[in-house]
Structures are given as structure tokens and as C-alpha cells.
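Would you mind giving me a polypeptide sequence along with per-residue C-alpha cells?
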Amino acid sequence: MDEEVLSVSEVRRGWVLVSLGDGSVLLPSQAAEAMNLRPGFLVDGEALHREAVRLQAADARRYANRYLAMAERSTGRLEAKLRQRGYMPEVVRGCLEWAREYGLVDDLRYARAFAAGRLLGRSALRARLRKNGVAEEAAAEVTAEADDAGRVEELTKIVRRKYGTLGDREKALRRAAGWLARRGYPPSVIARVLERAL
């Protein structure tokens, strides 16, 4: 069915948003120029949508490759970036499936790497993973693998180094307890660390 082009406006370098009577379509500027799209022009809306999906899919994969080459990312972070760039929902879904299939994103791998590099208790770790766009199943698995009690020795050394030099023991205990609590450690672990460190 033919629809009228209402406007063609640049949304980012090399891409334009073509507004139609029944929605809008993101297209590369060159493709829009080649199709001679301009206000008042009649176009087959369904054909334009299919072409937009095809062109966006190729661009989304190129973008995902560049974005994921910089650092390990979660599926949620990649999805947010793709949506932010204005790709259609079906393009975003397809790109995420492609990235998972080729091992470019793996929430479990990301979550384990994230957890290994941080001194966080289970509750704080789970919250941070979810905030970083990690799927619930991966966040739950990595959180279950975390051993709060197994970090007592490591935490004891850090607390001793950070707070052991304070002259006032009560002040040192309060500060150390607060520091540990903000990192999501349970009271039982906090008590063991404080008992050993201060």
C-alpha cells in the first residue's frame, strides 16, 4: 500500500528518518537518496520497511562487532546500544541472536569476569550484574557461585590496611563495617572480618 513521505530528516551521520503517514523508517542517507525519497513522494510502505530491515541488519552487525571488540559486554548493554541507535525492534532481536550464536556476547562469561574483578558480596554483585544488563539466569548462577565466606581472609587484609591505622578503634570498626555493608556482605561475614582485622 502506498504511503506519503511526510518528512526526511537526518538523525545521525549517514542516516535519515523517513516519516510516513503510518510511522517512520530509519534508512542510510544514500539509500534514501537513491530511492528519491522526499516529502510528498508516494512509496510502498511495506517494501520500504523490508528494505530498511535489510539495511539496518547489516549496519547493526557491523556496529555490534565494533562495540564488542572494545570490551566484554552483556546482552543487555548491547541491546541498549542498538536501540539507542534507532534500529527497529526486529533488527535488534536479530542482531542479538546473531551475536549470541557467534559467541560475541555471553552473559555468563561477562558475569564471571565482572565478579572476578570486584570485591562484592552476593547481594551487591547480583544488583550490579542486573544493572549492567546481565540476564537474570546468568546473574543468579554467578551469584550462587560467589563465596562470601571464602573472602574473609582477603577482606581482613584490606580492612586492616584501610582502617587499621585509625587511632580510634570504634571509628575504625564503624567505617570498616559500613564499607563492607555497602559491598553487599552479610552481617556474619562482616563480624568475622572485623574480629580478625581490628
Notes: The first helix runs from residue 29 to 34.
